[in-house]
Structures are given as structure tokens and as C-alpha cells.
Amino acid sequence: MEYRDLIIAKIQNIKEELIDLSNKIHGNPELAFQEFKAVDNISQLLEKHGFTVKKGIGGLETAFKAEYSCKYDGPTVAFIAEYDALPEIGHGCGHNLIAAMAVGAAIGLKEVAEYLYGRIVVLGTPAEEGGGGKIIMLEKGCFDDIDYALMMHPCVNNLICRGGLATRNIKVEYHGKSVHSSFPEGGINALQAVIQTFNLIDQFRPLFPLKTNINGIITHGGRAPNIIPDYAACEFSVRADTVRDLNKVVGYLEHIVETVEKLIGVKGKVRKGLMYAERYPNRVMDERLKENIAQFGIKMEYPDPAMKYGGSDIGNVSLKIPSIHSYIKIADKGVNVHSIEFARAANSPRAHEQMIKAAKAMALTGYDILTDENLRRKIEEEFNSTVPKYSEEELK
Fold first, then answer.
1. According to the model, what pLDDT value does residue 360 have?
2. Which of 94, 153, 264, 392 has the smallest set of CB atoms within 10 Å of its CB?
3. What angle in degrees, to the nearest 10, is found between the helix axes of 373-386 and 349-371?
4. Which of 159, 19, 172 lies closest to 100 in space, CA to CA?
5. Which distant-in-sequence residues (6+ apart) come within 8 Å of 281 by Cβ?
6. 71-84 pLDDT per residue, tens
7. Orientation of helix 243-264 relative to helix 190-204, angle to 10°
8. Cβ–Cβ < 8 Å for 190, 219
9. Per-position DSSP letters for 249-268, written without gaps between them
10. Is there a shared CATH topology between the 3-164+279-386 domain and the 166-272 domain?
11. pTM, two decimal places
């Protein structure tokens, strides 16, 4: 039996174990940085199959690295696991499947490790849904010894080479002076400052770079209608095509806050969330995945150029090392990801069949990377010619 056949057979043999893992994670949804049961279940299965697991890496209790060294020294391929859930709707993004795919791919590839040069890793990355786990792990050096990163995400399409926008949250607070509303001239209205912030953002929109989107809410507007608020706050989600475009928009927002301070007389404070960079899927790796998954009856497509993207912390990883974040269909179009309907789809027999196929394709792609020096050269050429080099300041 050829090595590739051994990989496929191994994943097929542990199919029920992977489905059980997926169901355990799905049935115990845990929010960002609280994914203790998920990490325990994932770790137990990986340890059972010979991986050494280290928990709490990067200062995050629910981050982990599981690794297995091949017979000979060589590059490191990491399969990325996500396992956090969403408030109220559980695994409406299908992270239970992402985790099980990564585990299955790693165990499958380990089956032929005695013939390979390199190292096989499952990197457990918590809090993708808003916590930026991968960003923190990057800053703490958790990706420093990883050469290639692979993951697949449940979707309503089979896609490769789909990018993602740069995004970050911005919180704005205003402090004014509280008085009774019968004497408004004696106070400084912090709520009026928030309202003017929204108005000025709308005035500035024609200056924003293309593909920019900014949306916000008022998080605090006062305590009583007959009191001039001395404190008000708002929060914005800012998206742009690139980190540099995003920084331009944030610069406009900071200018708006300064203008509002002078206009209303308030004191403003801007708090910036983590910088989620845009995503650069490595085309060479994605094309190889496309070839490998085709043998299981899945035809990968390319995103519509007009498709609207979200953001994810895998974008930051793609700036550091060649990475892919491909998509596999588990539900029909019309079902929204991040919904209760998608959460139901994420533990269906259909989803689990797709999960097994994805694990096999990722394992085969990892095998190709570890065994084909020419492929690695092409991957690196693509990475070096495509991915921008941002300064630390630009990513702050």
C-alpha cells in the first residue's frame, strides 16, 4: 500500500473517533478563552494516538500545541484547530468540525511519519470569535517554529483562495458634565458628542478607501432623560481591504474624536481592539488541496470577485507563514453561517462526511509539503511575492 493510501485508510479507521470528538465539542459549547472541555477532549484523542500535548502556551489557558516528530529533521506542518463557540447559538460557525478536521489530518499524516522529514503539529487556537487568540499566540512566539499552516472552515460553498478583510473594534468614550436638563447650558453633553461622532463618520465616508465598512452602536447614552449625561460611549467595527487602509480609517476616526472634543467640550478616549490583518491564502497550497480533495468527489471553486468578506485572526498568521483557510460545504446556500441553523448543520451526518474528506485532503496536502522540495519552493515564492511586510507599528 502506498503512503498516501495509508494516510487515507488511517483517517477512515478513526472516523468514529473524530465524529465523537466533534459531537463532544458541539454538545458542550464554550465561549472565547473558556474552552477547557474542548481542549481536554482534543488532547486526550491526540495523546491516545502518540502526540505530545502542551497546554497553556502563549499564556492562554486554552491554547495548546500537540506535536509528533517524524523520523528525520525537516519543516513543520501545523494543522490549525479552532473550538470556541458563539454566545446563544453555540457552534454556529462549526468550530467543532474545524477541530476534528485538524486532529484527523494530523493523526492520518502521522501514520507515515517514520518515512518523512519534518514535524507534525496541531496548534490549538482559542477565541477566534472576537478574542483574537491567534494574534496573541503570534505575539507570544507560538508560531515561530511553524513553517506551514493549514485549516478548513465549514461553509455553504467549497472554496479555495478566499481572502479576508482587515478589521478591528474601536471603542470611544466621552466625559462631560452632568446637570439637570432644565439647565442644559450648565453642562457638557457627552451623549451629544456620541451623536456628532456618528454624524461626522457619515460625512467622512466619501474619503474612506474602497471596500471600507464602518458600523457602530451606542453602548452608553445616559441614565435618565432629564439629566444631561456626563458619560457616553460607542463602539465601532471597522473593516478595510488592508491593514494600511484600515489605519487610514482609524486615523479619520481619531480626528473626528478630536473635532468633537473641541465642538462639544468633552474629553474623549479612543480604545483600539486587536488588529485583525487581511488574509493572504497561499495559492500554491490551496491548489494542491484542490487536487487532493477532488479524489473524494469535492470540486473546489474560487470566490466571486464581488463576494463580501469578513475578517479572522488567521489573516495575521498568513502574514507570517504560508497559510491556507479553505472552505468546505456542510449546508445549502441560504443557511447563514453564525446562525442556529448552521449550528444544527454542524453536527449532521452530512457535515461529518465532509469533515472526514477534509481531514484526508489536508493530511495529503501536508504529506506533499513534507515530501516535495519543489512544492515548498513554489509555496515560498508565492508567499514572498504576495504577502506585504508590515511594521510592528502598523499592526499595533
1. 98
2. 392
3. 100
4. 19
5. 160, 161, 162, 163, 318, 323, 324, 325, 326
6. 999 999 999 999 99
7. 140
8. no
9. HHHHHHHHHHHHHHHH--EE
10. no
11. 0.95
The two beta strands, 72-81 and 166-175, are: unpaired
pLDDT at residue 130 in the model? 85
Which cell numbers hold the place of 34?
473558556
In the chain, what are the domain boundaries? 3-164+279-386, 166-272
| pLDDT recorded at residue 345 | 97
Q: Are 76 and 148 in contact (CB under 8 A)?
A: yes
- State the SS3 of 277-295: CCECCCHHHHHHHHHHHHC
Fold classified for 3-164+279-386: Aminopeptidase (3.40.630)
pLDDT in tens, 115-128: 999 999 999 999 99
Answer whether 208's CB lies under 8 Å from 252's CB. yes
Q: Which residues contact 46 (CB under 8 A, 6 or more apart)?
A: 53, 66, 103, 106, 107, 122
> How high is the pLDDT of residue 306?
80
Cβ atoms of 87 and 31 within 8 Å: the answer is yes
pLDDT of residue 308: 80
C-alpha distances out from residue 39 to 25, 47, 54, 69, Å: 9, 12, 11, 21
User: For the domain bounded by 166-272, which CATH number is listed?
Assistant: 3.30.70.360
With the C-alpha atoms ordered 86, 42, 162, 396, is the resulting torsion angle positive or negative? positive
Q: Which three cell numbers stand for residue 178?
A: 452632568
Question: Residues 98, 153: contact at Cβ < 8 Å?
Answer: yes
- The DSSP H or E segment spanning 78 is strand 72-81
| Residues of the chain below pLDDT 70 | none
Bridge partner list, 188: 177
351/353 Cα distance (integer angstroms): 5
- Under DSSP, is residue 164 helix (H, G, I), strand (E, B) or coil? strand
Alpha helices in the chain (DSSP H): 3-13, 15-27, 36-48, 95-110, 133-139, 190-204, 243-264, 283-294, 314-320, 340-345, 349-371, 373-386
| H/E stretch holding 172 | strand 166-175
Residue 310: the pLDDT is 83
